[in-house]
């Protein structure tokens, strides 16, 4: 039975007819941060992007193993982390079923549709992650890669199939997950997933919001992150959150703190006016460029730093 990880993982079910264990070589310094397994479970393997309120997947049943790894002080990009793992899979005879990068995957909604180990063991930056799914015979593998400002993160999910739910006749690989509920005309991330992320980490970056450099106003449109946050607040009327704006490092600190607060206030106004959020549950502040998650020396880094995060602060008395 194939078990995938940076080092050989224990075989959960012995079967002489299955292949020998395959060990993926991870970057130097990788440390295992979490591991979970089940000898028999169901698993929805994503093989397409999130679109039209659904994600394409293969419904699988079998023995599953999940392992998360942290690459401390690793400054490689997500592509540089994922590419060697992908190459090892193809060299071992695996067929790639699907591969995507952040927005092409479906962004916020795709990430929360994935069944990943929780923070802080597996961190996913909603603005910078990659995913792939592969197959070899009855062995299926999903790899998710992301990073923080200073470390890389990898989760490897390996499932040895015992039975596969029949697929749709028009697509031999995939069948859609049920559509997510609609909230104020926007496709919302399942509230339970958003709630788990916010309550576990204490904060979530609303990475589907877009602020051009120097701009303070949030543009028109439907935002999955705001729909999910509004749903969370409606379901938890005693909860309070703070929206914290962040900028790149172009300009003075005072100007950027003022700009970041205006961005947070713009998001707060949209939550209240468009999503019906109780104003008493949401406040807004700005941190300027004091909490970067990437270097502001590059265009990519500056874009990542321009963001608004929601921070869970307290319950109302």
Automatic annotation (TrEMBL):
The keyword Signal applies. InterPro entries: Bact_OuterMem_StrucFunc, OMP_bac, OmpA-like, OmpA-like_sf. Its main location: membrane. It comes from the Bacteria. Residues 198-316 form the OmpA-like domain. Coiled coil: none annotated. Residues 299-309 have a biased composition (Basic and acidic residues). Residues 297-317 are annotated as: Disordered. Keywords: Cell outer membrane, Membrane, Signal. Residues 1-19 form the signal peptide. Transmembrane segments: none annotated. The keyword Ribosomal protein does not apply. It is found in: Cell outer membrane. This is OmpA-like domain-containing protein.
